[in-house]
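To the wet lab folks,

You asked to see what we're planning to order before we commit. Fair enough. Below is the target structure as tokens, and below that is the sequence we designed to fit it. If anything looks off to you, flag it before the synthesis order goes out.
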């Protein structure tokens, strides 16, 4: 647990992210004994809310989205730590008062941690206010994704941040990097002699990073219309996972060394080619409340990208994510090249799904890894069939003890460890890589809710096939 006392200020405290992830996540950390010995959590947003009302909202959020009921001593203690102070950049006084009260309650000089769970346009004014009021002092700041909406806005945001904060105080959060099984990609690759030797263009024919979701936009029309799936999921979560899958061995897991390596991956990515991107929109999206009836915002993206370096040259990386699809999954699939000589006749039904071996990493909590291969079916003839070796987190470890992505990262921020946070140069490079697509997006193609996106996704990946939905 962090040893420094903390005042955590949650901007966007009345919003969706605070309700779904941040307040339940903070309560989980409290129950696990992973908050500092003395802490206070100050909620803030534009609207005026009383402390009691904020506590009620937090309790409802934990009841709906948390892993433990908001009852008993643990809840009582946590609820006691909550207070609220509204803030608008021009009217920060209620927040200043709430922070001062929280600090007096703790005593001494607690560290301030600001979590900016606000839409992208709210970042700069909030940071300006933190600078002007002197709150920024010894603080750290967690900035939510998407970090900017293109290269110019990300650069402007970095400039604005650096007028108030030193880079060592800045924690750009991408909660996929806090997921146990994404972190485990580093262990899988660099702690074992079994996998890394084949982790390159000599053995791998293609990669897939597939994150279909069943949820729609869940009433977030305002956010989603301005953002779309490319900015919400691809340029952030999927590219960051790609960074872990594709990086060279870092010399250590320290923040500089790890982020140097992911940044090198992003530097090796050629600009996204808009002809290698399928943008989709689920039928019915335009009827959602708050969505423009002629909206061209995409709720689905599939893209083919490359990493042009010695390890990956010529290996396509296929990425896919979308709302209202057939299944919720978070999967990386490494398709292995065929052996030099096929001496077995393959059952034609296997030829398509399993003509190659696959290493599959399912990184949705609690996660699993499977090596899929061909094996001889028992019997007098040499008949091959599908087989798998599977490691399941839930079978081997206490997954109750696992921290969710946000929990792990908020804890790391309190400890001052930036390793799993994104860095300005890497993020800016990803916006540069995305520039041609943002400037020239192909038209959105409709798809049916519950499907796997527009038909064009199959042409995009040919001659390979999407591992999902038929892979297990
Ligand atoms: C968020 C996106 O960052 O990630 C959401 O804004 C998406 O649109 C979510 O649904 C997926 O995250 P998780 O925690 O469900 O894996």
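Sequence we intend to order:
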């Amino acid at each position: 647990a962090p040893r420094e006392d903390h005042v955590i200020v949650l901007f966007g405290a009345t919003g969706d992210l605070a309700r779904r992830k941040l307040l339940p996540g903070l309560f989980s950390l409290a129950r696990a004994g992973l908050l500092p010995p003395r802490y206070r959590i100050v909620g803030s947003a534009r609207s005026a809310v009383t402390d009691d009302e904020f506590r009620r909202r937090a309790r409802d959020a934990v009841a709906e989205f948390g892993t433990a009921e908001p009852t008993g001593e643990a809840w009582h203690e946590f609820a006691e730590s909550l207070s609220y102070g509204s803030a608008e950049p021009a009217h920060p006084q209620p927040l200043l008062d709430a922070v001062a009260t929280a600090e007096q309650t703790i005593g001494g000089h607690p560290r301030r941690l600001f979590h900016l769970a606000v839409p992208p346009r709210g970042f700069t004014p909030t940071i300006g206010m933190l600078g002007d009021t002197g709150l920024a002092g010894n603080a750290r700041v967690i900035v939510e994704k998407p970090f900017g909406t293109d290269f110019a806005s990300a650069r402007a945001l970095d400039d604005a941040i650096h007028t108030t904060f030193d880079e060592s105080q800045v924690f750009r959060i991408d909660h996929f990097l806090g997921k146990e099984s994404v972190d485990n990609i580093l262990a899988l690759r660099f702690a074992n002699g079994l996998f890394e030797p084949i982790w390159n263009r000599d053995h791998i024919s293609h990669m897939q990073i597939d994150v279909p979701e069943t949820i729609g936009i869940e009433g977030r029309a305002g956010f989603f219309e301005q953002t779309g799936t490319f900015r919400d999921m691809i340029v952030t979560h999927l590219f960051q996972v790609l960074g872990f899958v594709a990086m060279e061995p870092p010399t250590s897991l320290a923040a500089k060394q790890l982020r140097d390596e992911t940044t090198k991956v992003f530097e090796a990515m050629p600009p996204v080619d808009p002809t290698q991107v399928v943008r989709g929109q689920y039928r019915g999206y335009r009827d959602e409340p708050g969505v423009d009836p002629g909206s061209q915002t995409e709720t689905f993206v599939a893209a083919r990208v490359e990493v042009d370096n010695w390890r990956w040259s010529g290996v396509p990386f296929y990425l896919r994510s979308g709302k209202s699809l057939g299944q919720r999954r978070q999967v990386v699939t490494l398709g292995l090249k065929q052996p030099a000589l096929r001496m077995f006749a393959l059952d034609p039904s296997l030829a398509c799904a399993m003509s190659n071996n696959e290493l599959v990493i399912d990184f949705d909590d609690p996660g699993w890894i499977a090596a899929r291969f061909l094996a001889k079916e028992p019997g007098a003839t040499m008949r091959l069939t599908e087989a798998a070796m599977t490691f399941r987190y839930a079978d081997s470890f206490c997954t109750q003890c696992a921290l969710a992505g946000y929990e792990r990262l908020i804890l790391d921020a309190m400890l001052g460890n930036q390793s799993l946070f994104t860095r300005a140069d890497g993020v800016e490079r990803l916006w540069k890589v995305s520039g041609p697509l943002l400037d020239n997006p192909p038209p959105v193609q409709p798809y049916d809710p519950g499907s796997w996106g527009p038909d064009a996704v199959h042409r995009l990946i040919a001659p390979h096939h999407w591992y999902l939905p038929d892979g297990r």
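Structural context that might help your review: The mean pLDDT is 95. DSSP finds 14 helices and 15 strands in the chain.

Thanks,
Computational group
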